[in-house]
Amino acid sequence: MLSTIHGIWTALLLFVFIVIVAWAFSARRRDSFDRAARSVLQDDSPQSSGHGVRTDG
User: Fold this and answer.
1) I need a surface site. Which of 10, 14, 25, 28 has the fewest CB within 10 A?
2) Using one digit for the tens of pLDDT, what is the confidence trace for 4-57?
3) Distances, alpha carbon 49 to alpha carbons 2, 42, 44, 46, 54, in Å
4) What is the reported pTM?
5) Do residues 23 and 29 make contact, with C-beta atoms less than 8 angstroms apart?
6) Could you tell me how many helices (H) and strands (E) the chain has, helices first?
């Protein structure tokens, strides 16, 4: 009985894993993931040359 439960649990987890992988690599998600990947590389905030060091007295 216990081995049957383990087999069902393993099959269920394998199915969930395959669904997640298929979702991640689906063509509909590609644009969203590409935008997220590029957003990390974009510099949208101006940085000062002093790196946070105050020089005004």
Assistant:
1) 28
2) 999 999 999 999 999 999 988 888 888 888 888 888 888 766 665 555 566 665
3) 65, 18, 16, 10, 11
4) 0.55
5) yes
6) 2, 0
Q: Give Cα 15 to chain centroid, integer Å.
A: 20
Residue type for position 56: D
**d(C-alpha 7, C-alpha 13), whole Å:** 10
Q: Is the dihedral of CA 13, 15, 17, 23 positive or negative?
A: negative
Closest CA to 23 of 35, 36, 10, 32: 32
